[in-house]
Every structure is written in C-alpha cells, then in structure tokens.
C-alpha cells in the first residue's frame, strides 16, 4: 500500500458543482445513475485529464455532454476512472451496478437487516459512484430513490423532500434536494420499513424545524431520550455558539450494523442504534449519557464539519477535535461539570496517552497515512479536543467566542485547515500562536517535572517547571510546547492564597493560568508567608503528565481540601496508584492508615456531589496502572488492586453498607446527574463489598438483580455475581438471557459481561459464545462486545501466559478482515502495545502480528496497523 503525505496536497483540478443521483434499489443489485456538472478549477493548474475515484462499480454506461464515450476515451481500474481529453466544462453521466447486499465492509451503500443505508466518510462514496471523493470538492446534490413500496415505504436522503411518485409496478420514488454544497462524504441514503417519532424546534430567527427519529417498528418507544437530547443540543448551540440549524428537517436514523458510533450526514444522521435507543429497563446510565453526547456531537457537526469542512483528511481534527470539545462542554452543562471533566481525563489518560506512547503515536494533524480510516483515533478526537480547549483556556471564554464567531463568518461554505481555525484565535486575541501550533504537528505527551522552593525570609515561593516530550515515530526531538498550566496554592487551612508573580502589581485569588513556553522556567510568587500545598494543572488545563513529589500527607490534604474537582480526584488517584504499585512489587507493603481514613471520610460525606465522590473512590484501572510500569505485570496488578479493594471493604464495611442503603431510591428512573451519581456510588459500594466473599453481600446483589428496577442496577449486580464461582452466576445469566434475547443491544451487554468475567475459563466461554445464535461476526457491535471486550478489557484473560489470548485475537483478525477491514483493524490495534510486556509475551504477540502480515490479501487497514506496530 502507498503512503499519502500532507506535503503533497494539491487543490483539485476539477470541481463538481452539481450532482444528480438516481438510485434504483433492488433485491439483487442496485443501479446508480449520476449526472455530474464538472468544470475546471480556476484556482488550480489543470492537466486536461480527469481522474475520478470509484471502487467495486460495474460500468453500464458512460457519456460526456450526451455523447456515449468510446472505450478508447476512458480507462477503468480498481481505484477509479480516467478520462483523457477533458473539456473545460461538461456534463458527465454514468450508470453503474453495485451490490449492497454483498457489502459486509459496511462502507458505501449496504444493507443492515432489511434496510438500506450508507456510510460514506471517509472514502465510501466512491463505492457508490464515480466521483471526486475528497472533502475539498463541495457540490449541490439532488437524489432520487426508487424502490419497492411495501418493503421500503420510507426513502430518505439529505436536504428537503421534493415529491413522491407512486408507480403501478408496486414501486415508488422520492426526490430529495440539498441546497447546501457538501463534500461527498456527507451524502446519505436510507430506505426501509421504518417508524418515526416527530417533534419540532423553532430557531431564534424563527425557522421551524421538523425533528424526526426513524427506527425499526419494535423500537419506536425507545426514542424519547434521543429526541430530548437533540432539542437540548440545538438550544445549547444557539446559546453558546450562536449557531442555528439551516434546513426544514433534521433526521436521525438508527441502524443495527454500523462501524462506529454515528455519522453526521447533512440533515440525515445515521446512528448505531446503541446511540439512539434507550429505556430505563434496557439502557444503563452510561448509555443514556452516551446517547445525549453522541446526538449532540453529530448535531454540532452541522456547523463544525458540514458548513465548514476539512480541506483534506489530514485536517480531520479541525472538525473532530472541535466537535468533541463542543460536546464535552455541552455534557458538562447538562450534568455534573466536575464529573464530566474527570471522565474525559480518565479516557484521555487511559487511551490517548497510551496511543501517544505506542508505535501508533501520531500528531493531532498527522502528516501521512496509508488508510485514513485508521486515523479516527483518540489522538485526533480526544487530544484534538484538548488542543481546542487549551486555546479557549488561553483566550478566556469571551475571546474564544469571538474567535469562533470569526471562524464561522469567514469560512462558511469552505473546506479549510486547522491553521485557519487557529488563525481566527490569533486574530481576535492579537496573540502569536506559532509556538502553540506545535500541538498539532508534534506527537507525544509532554511531561512536566515540577519542583518547588519556599524561601520564608523573602516570603517567596518558586515553582520550577521543566518540560520534556518523549520521542515518537519519525519525531526524535521535539521543540518546546506552549502549555497553559493552571495552578493554585493552598494554605494549611485549605484556603486559596493570593497569587502575585514577581513583577506584577497585584495579587489575584484563586486559579492562575501560567504559560509554560520554555524547556525550563521558573515562576516566583511573592507575599507567601507559609509553605503552601500547590494544586497543579487545575481542571486538567493541558494534556500533559505532571510529576511533583507530593508527600502522602499532602495528597490526603488535597483529597480533602482542594476546591478543584479534577485535582481532588487526581490526588486520590495518585495516592492509590502509589500504594497499588508498591504492592505489586511487595504484596504485603503497608497500606497507610491515612489513606483508609481519607476513604472513610469520603464515604461518609453526604454533602458533596455523589457522582464526584464515586469518581474519587474508584481505584485507577488495571490498564492505567500497567501504563505506569516499566514492564506491565498483568497478574501482579490484578492481585494488588483486588487486595486493596478487599482491605478497604474489610475496614470500611459498615460505611460501605450504609452508603449502599442510604443511596437507595424507590422513585422511578431518571437519568439526571444527581440520580446517576447516587446509583454509581451505590454500585461502587457493592463492588467493594463483594470482595468480602460474604453470602449476605451476594444476596444483596441477587436481590438488586431481581428487583429489576433499571438496567444500570441490574447490570451492576449481575456483573458482580457473574464473576463469582457460585451456582447463582449461571442462573442469573440464563434468566437475563431469557428475558432479553430479542433485544440485540441488551444481548451486547450479556456478551460483554461474560467476556470480562474474571474466571479461569473465560476464553473458552468466549469461544463458545461466538457460536451462540445471538452472536454474529458480521455485526460490529457484537464483535466489540464479545471479542473486543475480552481482548482489551480482560487483561488477565487476554494476556494468559500460554499465549492463547493472542492466538485467539490473531485468528479473529484474519477472519474479520475478509468481511470488514475497519473492524479488523480496530482489533489488531490491541496488539500494537506488545513492547510493554515481558519477553515471552512480546514474542507471542509479535508472532501473531507477523503471521497476520504474511497472510495473502490482507486489507490496507490491517496492514498499516500491523506493520507500524512492528517497526
Ligand atoms: N465523522 C464520523 C466518523 C466517521 C468514521 C469513518 N471511519 C462520526 C463522528 O465523528 O461524528
Ligand atoms: Zn465527529
């Protein structure tokens, strides 16, 4: 496979102003007729040769300005169509045959169950018809869909519907027109026997928008939460960014077979049903939150992505990083801000920091790729969001809003770059962002080493900050980053000290945003009359690692007194991590009494945000702990974490039990922040108590399961029981299965639960479950919930010393790759971090990667990941 470089970007030689598509959807084949209005791009040097993308298309007819083209006038190959003698402008018509029923890659036009749907981002449109399938070619689309009236009563595409025609042959056809120019990756089509719920929204300028959510008939009563989320998102974007919706209709369609979460096609979002369907009986609190944030994310793309899109795919973070930042802030406003920030940091540290430290590390704006689908990563999305957040941190909210206003005004209707976005921030603030832009071009997680010096005689306190960024593939040395570094200083009573830097006229109280720009830099605060405890990186103001030698006592102090929720949580994590890692090496190393006391204090605190407490009381994950070790000790980490949990449960049994009982609520289910907080705290208490191997606790779980109040509580209880070697484990799993076997999303949970079970026979159970009638390798949700969950969520099982987990994954990758390369490539990524393990495990993982690479005909997707992992 060839590598594509950012430095090779050239503007398109031709533009396509209008596209007229006609689909005839059939049971054997689908015909696509396209009429393209093409002209030379005045801004490019034109060669006279037109090269259109197209894959897996069977040519039926091709004509230029009404004249059928002779076989000598064009060439077709595996990747496209070339026309040698292009006029300066013309109408190109084509007719192709495609086979959506055979499309298992779920890219282009395909069938999910009985419905037709599309996924075109990044380069799926070329599997529908010949086109300039690149985001800087924006066209006006008209789409006519013809299909059987009974099988496909609902026919949808982008924009507004024009007319419906019924024909005597049992068919009907509808034409949709999208007035906004868009790149082909935003094209969508849906056809099926669907039901919808409808609502409406009036924008500030008085436009009435019809909101519709389409689902399969049996799911019609599970759409209300998605609809409520959509309305909230629309109002939020109007209020916070001054953006309103621009078409008469906004549609969301839920499909069962989908490679990712959802897709922001103009006016016609297509969603993985996981991010639409919810009822208290079938969806957990996490699911409700996920729906709210993904519905919002796709809606926000209408401006950040669709109206203003990317010039090329290297700029992917222009839309994804910005849109993730927007959805994070939306969720923070809808629920608990502090908790949302902690969840986002947890995800970033667990996955993005890990990616940045792996052979797959790449900048937020990558400079090369083989397969663009491999670059929809936590770096482009989540680190990209942090990079936008840092700009907001540096500017403050008013200037940041001015910056986005300018961005929307200047670039509406265009395909632009991350530099264009930053330029707006620079202009409104009058600041120079050239150093800042290294965040887009340099990969790796910067590390800040901090030391402090208190000089009582001078009443000075100096923080020395040294930054360093480890080498990443192709980038051995890094230039210094500009890092917004939020700090506060606490006195011994836990009060904020006034902060006045040397040379400044006055002090401020609260958080100070320091700007770290050099490799080593000192910040001296004056008027400091006692040794403070520093609160560092408040709100996680930059995606960096901070190293500072806190004493255990200082960490406990921060856990109790620090006003910033993130820092309070982080202090608890740091202290727990210290204890856990020490006990990996020395299993009977002492657990400081102060730590247990700090836990007790938090457990009995009924004042604070319960959801935040649940975060504080959650120990760092096994995989995160592994990341902190030179060589991951899978078994040791697991043992250490379990034994600390048991110790806490033994010592704090009474507190945990009263926490459990005090947070019971007999009220109906509501997914609001307060109720979610109570449920998560309560279920967390149960997860500690289960460590006691106490029959009474097991009974609590069983009772909670049987009470069946909502899926959050049922699943929490079931997952604790399923881990145990007790007869009830099988009974409850079977009961759950019988109750939910017809609900695919609940079955996903059932698979995951068993894949994560901490039992010696988990792998063979997973292998058996693959033969279960409810499982299908063709459905990405099933693959992720069984195979993905086992390989990336069950460290002890997957990293079994005999290599059986690796062999299993290698087999699955090869099996999947023939059907769905995108899903296969996500799976093979799990092995990219082989260097982190001991020599034997390294050898065995490498052997699987090599075996995959040696296999004839593997996809570009899998090749890129496997080969880069071994470099
Ligand atoms: N833009 C899509 C992701 C497309 C992934 C293509 N492999 C969803 C989103 O980020 O909103
Ligand atoms: Zn997105």
Automatic annotation (TrEMBL):
<dbReference type="GO" id="GO:0006508">
    <property type="term" value="P:proteolysis"/>
</dbReference>
<dbReference type="Pfam" id="PF11940">
    <property type="entry name" value="DUF3458"/>
</dbReference>
<keyword id="KW-0645">Protease</keyword>
<dbReference type="InterPro" id="IPR045357">
    <property type="entry name" value="Aminopeptidase_N-like_N"/>
</dbReference>
<dbReference type="GO" id="GO:0016285">
    <property type="term" value="F:alanyl aminopeptidase activity"/>
</dbReference>
<dbReference type="InterPro" id="IPR001930">
    <property type="entry name" value="Peptidase_M1"/>
</dbReference>
<keyword id="KW-0482">Metalloprotease</keyword>
<comment type="similarity">
    <text>Belongs to the peptidase M1 family.</text>
</comment>
<dbReference type="Pfam" id="PF17432">
    <property type="entry name" value="DUF3458_C"/>
</dbReference>
<dbReference type="InterPro" id="IPR024601">
    <property type="entry name" value="Peptidase_M1_pepN_C"/>
</dbReference>
<dbReference type="GO" id="GO:0008237">
    <property type="term" value="F:metallopeptidase activity"/>
</dbReference>
<dbReference type="InterPro" id="IPR027268">
    <property type="entry name" value="Peptidase_M4/M1_CTD_sf"/>
</dbReference>
<keyword id="KW-0479">Metal-binding</keyword>
<protein>
    <recommendedName>
        <fullName>Aminopeptidase N</fullName>
        <ecNumber>3.4.11.2</ecNumber>
    </recommendedName>
</protein>
<dbReference type="InterPro" id="IPR014782">
    <property type="entry name" value="Peptidase_M1_dom"/>
</dbReference>
<keyword id="KW-0031">Aminopeptidase</keyword>
<keyword id="KW-0862">Zinc</keyword>
<dbReference type="InterPro" id="IPR035414">
    <property type="entry name" value="Peptidase_M1_pepN_Ig-like"/>
</dbReference>
<dbReference type="InterPro" id="IPR037144">
    <property type="entry name" value="Peptidase_M1_pepN_C_sf"/>
</dbReference>
<feature type="domain" description="Peptidase M1 alanyl aminopeptidase C-terminal">
    <location>
        <begin position="552"/>
        <end position="871"/>
    </location>
</feature>
<keyword id="KW-0378">Hydrolase</keyword>
<dbReference type="InterPro" id="IPR042097">
    <property type="entry name" value="Aminopeptidase_N-like_N_sf"/>
</dbReference>
<dbReference type="Pfam" id="PF17900">
    <property type="entry name" value="Peptidase_M1_N"/>
</dbReference>
<dbReference type="InterPro" id="IPR012779">
    <property type="entry name" value="Peptidase_M1_pepN"/>
</dbReference>
<comment type="function">
    <text>Aminopeptidase N is involved in the degradation of intracellular peptides generated by protein breakdown during normal growth as well as in response to nutrient starvation.</text>
</comment>
<feature type="domain" description="Peptidase M1 membrane alanine aminopeptidase">
    <location>
        <begin position="226"/>
        <end position="439"/>
    </location>
</feature>
<feature type="domain" description="Aminopeptidase N-like N-terminal">
    <location>
        <begin position="23"/>
        <end position="186"/>
    </location>
</feature>
<dbReference type="GO" id="GO:0008270">
    <property type="term" value="F:zinc ion binding"/>
</dbReference>
<feature type="domain" description="Peptidase M1 alanyl aminopeptidase Ig-like fold">
    <location>
        <begin position="444"/>
        <end position="549"/>
    </location>
</feature>
<dbReference type="InterPro" id="IPR038438">
    <property type="entry name" value="PepN_Ig-like_sf"/>
</dbReference>
<dbReference type="Pfam" id="PF01433">
    <property type="entry name" value="Peptidase_M1"/>
</dbReference>
